[in-house]
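Researcher: Let's continue the batch. This sequence belongs to Peptidyl-prolyl cis-trans isomerase, and it's 181 residues. Same format as the previous ones, please.
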Amino acid sequence: MDNFPIVKLHTNYGIITLELNAEKAPITVKNFLEYVNSGFYYKTIFHRVIEGFVIQGGGYNYSQGIVSFNTLTKMIPKSTNPPIKNEAANGLKNDKYTIAMARKSAPHSATSQFFINLKDNHTLNFTSPDKENFGYCVFGKVVAGTEVVDAISKVQTKSRYGLDNVPTEEVVLKKAEQVLN
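Model: Same format as before. Here are the structure tokens for Peptidyl-prolyl cis-trans isomerase:
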């Protein structure tokens, strides 16, 4: 595997191009590419948008396929592979336009969900190996399409389906593809 694979995220807002860092985050990049190359992200949604913080996706489909958000009855979580080791201590920082793995409160619970930082989020960085300070693993950065990220960050949101900050209009990841090893 090349140390800096390129992935394109095709959204209904445009294309976001990512350069991944397999040198610093080999487990995380391998995991992400397995999801990308299997077609897992096809028609998933960005389900969490917090302007000035992050946009998050990679874990939910719409229950009725891609339809009007107003007719959506609920979001369906996708079945994932087992969680991976958190590589947040790799020296990469949660800076603006970096991509990192989302996880639950347990440090080593990341599966398929990821987020793109909308600012330098230093509070998300690794500071120590304890649960509260383990951080979130950065594994790449946006190298083209920052205007797409910015447009997604400005969608209206509300609480629905038991989640906060859910876009009120569709933000769909139509396809993810690896374009360079």
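Researcher: Any comment?
Model: Confidence is low (pLDDT under 50) at residues 64-68.
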